[in-house]
Amino acid sequence: MSILPQAFEDWTIILKINFILSVLFVTLALLLLGTVLYMRILKNRSEERKKTLEILLIDFVNNFLFDEEFDKSKNSVNFKNKHLKTPYDSKIAITQILLFNENLKGESSSLIKELFFGLGLYTFLLKDLKGNAWHKKARALFVFNKLSVEVPEPLVVSQLNSKREEARHQAILYFINSSENDPLSFLDKIDTPLTLWQQIGMENAMKAYSGEIPNFSKWLNHKQQSVVIFCIKMIVDHNQFENILSVQKLVNHPNARVRRQAIVSLRKMEIGEVLPVLIKNFPNEGPKIKQEILKNISKLGSEEELKMIAPHIHTKDRVLKIEYLKIARYFNPKLPKVKKTILKIYPPEMNKAKYY
Amino acid sequence: MDINFHQLIDIASWLFLAYGMIMSLGYIFSSIFSLIELRDYKRKYNFKDEIGLLQSAHMPMISLLAPAYNEEANVIENVKSLLTLDYPSFEIMVINDGSTDHTLEKLIHNFDLYLDENIYFKHVPSKNIKGIYKSRNKAYKNLKIVDKVNGGKADALNSGINCCSHDIICCIDVDCVLERDALLKLIKPFLNNTKKVIASGGIIRVANSCVIEDGRITEVRLPDNFIARAQILEYFRAFLMGRMAWSRVDGLLLISGAFGMFDKATVIEAGGYNHNTVGEDMELLVRMRRIMREKKIPYTVGFVPDPLCWTEVPQTWNVLYMQRNRWTRGTVETLNIHKKMLFNPSYGVLGLLSTPYWMFFEWFAPIIEFFGILFFVFLLVFGQVNWIVFLIFFGVVYSFSILFSITALFFEEFSFQQYKKPEYMLRLLYTAMLEPLIYHPFVMWSAIRGNLDLLLGKKSWGKMTRNGLGNNVVKGKS
User: Fold this and answer.
1) Averaged confidence pLDDT in chain A
2) Residues 49-78 of B with CB under 8 A from A
């Protein structure tokens, strides 16, 4: 018998544990190293496969689109059976089809859709959409949306209030792009707040929307504040001046974020008529909204209106005072530089403000 | 005497083993959490349209704060590089922290600056500002230069906070190389959350030896310098494994000072950067989180694993020593300031997991290691070393170090694979073998000295000389 096992038997428990751990760590390190090498080899192979398949796909798609004698359905089936054997192959094909779709319009674009179906990619993605993995669902919706391919509505509706923000995002974009005349009708079904990213996605989708832009005021009473905020922004972006009155009413909304957005948007739309209401509300608002009101007065009001809110700026509101003074100087550049102005209006506290 | 020695050895052995086991378990859990977080991140942003963000009129506006002290050699190139970042609406605020060279003059001359007479408010404490400059050239309309009395990095950033205009601030080191889409990526957590996001951090990558063209990294190369290579492994471990895992459990306590984004209102509410610590980046985030927690406001801190910011790391033992000494002092100071949070369940993950982790595994680890070495010397002196025991203990520590570094390499391979040449991976592996023997003991010693310096009341940063990334620059064609 070898010496090591005998020695091992004689070791104390702590040595045994340490020895076993050393062996375990070395084994794990080697395994992990093997995994790293394997991953590198796998990645290289995947890259090679991708390159080869891309070349084949480009050739095939070009023939499919531009060769009139090309037997589309027969060759599609052949190509699918011969080259699209794994999910990875299908993903490469989808990426290529999306690239072609981005660069083509009109008849070619509908041919791309035909190809998408012909290669079995619709079935492939529909399976993902029906599955459980959120990232696959989101990806499927992304592709359906980009290619304007219709899928059974209940499958998309269920994603509108998905736990995963990404799936919700893609469902929203799908609904906007697939709708012919009411791109935001899905908003009525939304139970979760919209993230800023979703709002930006919707904003861009609305810019690209070719149908009639809806009247955003329809959702100004939505239960989700984020939806209301989004609609206020869109009213400005799409110059829906007919909704000014509805937006004006929102400066009295119970939610501060909605009020703030309404004030900002009214400023952008240059609606000076709202100033008396804002000045009246000023004493009861929080600092952030007060700053926005000041900005509105600066852009749309007069020195007289500015003076009307002066008594409501408390001695502790130093930031507001600075804002006030900036605007005062904007209205009246002849005003003496800060210190004197400050001392005149608010004697002691304002000395803490710095003028550089 | 003999029995006492053996008892002592037994007790110490068990203690070291227990500590080592807890530490290893911590690392294993952090690896698992990181892996899940990385996988999720890749899935999450697989098909998100960042170009769409550029087209939006409703993106949050960002103020980029870049403190500069005696940066005359590179400041113009660095600012020009910042000006070309992709983001719909941002301002760049370079804070000249009382440079004694010609940093300010160069900026004024190159960007056609004039003194702006506007009113600014001191939200957070900072030294006096001598002037704020803006450019007459419309091409640089989003550039502002703050000239102030020297007060250190924290003070300079506070001045930037006082003078900037937008609600989101992004603090960077002016000599860092940012990816063109760095802001678009770092803002993601702010856009993607229904909870309030107070900060977002990114991964810092090592720029030494990389090829830089027009202020951008165009080729990632592995440095020939061993110290720099060891830090690459260290950064993999810290960012790809450590911070990703902390992000998963929402327990991040540190966003690197080299590149971090913050909600300005929360920073101001927290009082801005602390002048009295050398670990101002960590201290600020801990304070912000503490305030949010105490006010019971739901919030989160984001982390983006994409390689967005590249920095030059120390290449000499001396500079490395000063850096690690400072980092240790910063950690201890922060933990000391916020000791109330330690083991305090009312701070949730921060109180029960993050701060204890930082105390035991960041602060205490080098001290315990040092005592381990002292203990070994003690045994050596008294002729009590059992070499088999020594070899086995050394074996377990060394094998774990290697395992940890190889795990980090795995994470790099799994995530962004920046070091593409197979030769690079082999050299990193070789570095991983040597690191526990050469690099790690030195870093441990720097941390020990950091603790001692803290006890002696040392507050300075130490002179951080850099080689500069100038040698790596390939001049642009334009």
Assistant:
1) 87
2) 49, 52-53, 55-60
E strands in chain A:
354-355
This complex has an ipTM of: 0.84
Rounded distance between C-alpha atoms, residue A155 and residue B85, angstroms: 40
Q: Can you give the pLDDT at residue A323?
A: 84
Q: Is residue B414 part of a domain?
A: no
Q: What is the pLDDT of residue B175?
A: 82
Residue B189 lies inside a defined structural domain of this protein: yes
Tokens of A170: 């893609």
| Angstroms from A353 CA to nearest CA on chain B | 6
User: Tell me: the pLDDT tens digits for B2-15?
Assistant: 557 777 777 877 88
pLDDT above 90: residue A254: yes
Q: Give the gap in angstroms from C-alpha B77 to the nearest C-alpha of chain A.
A: 28
| Cα(A183)–Cα(B374) distance, integer angstroms | 72
Q: Which DSSP string corresponds to A65-127?
A: HH-TT--HHHHHHHHHHHH--SHHHHHHHHHHHHHHHHH--THHHHHHHHHHHHTTHHHHHHH
Chain A hits for B264, CB-CB cut-off 8 Å, are none
- Overall domain count for chain B: 1
> Whose structure tokens read 């019971």?
B296
Minimal CA–CA distance to B285: which of B255, B320, B259? Answer: B255
**Residue that has been written with the tokens 């002290």 in this structure:** B69
Inform me whether the C-beta atom of residue B461 falls under 8 Å from chain A C-beta atoms.
no
Averaged pLDDT, groups of 10, chain B, 478 residues long: 68 82 87 91 78 88 95 89 93 95 94 85 89 92 94 94 94 90 93 92 92 88 95 93 92 92 95 91 95 94 92 93 94 95 95 94 92 88 85 91 92 87 90 95 96 86 61 48
Q: Where do the H-state alpha helices sit in B307-386?
A: 317-337, 348-349, 355-357, 364-381
Residue at B3 is within a domain:
no
Residue located via tokens 């940093």: B103
Q: CB distance from A256 to chain B under 8 Å?
A: no
Owning domain of residue B153 = 49-316
3-state SS assignment for residue B307: strand
Within-domain flag for B392: no
Residue A72 has a pLDDT of 85
B196: CATH? 3.90.550.10
Of B119, B122, B191, the CB nearest to A338: B119
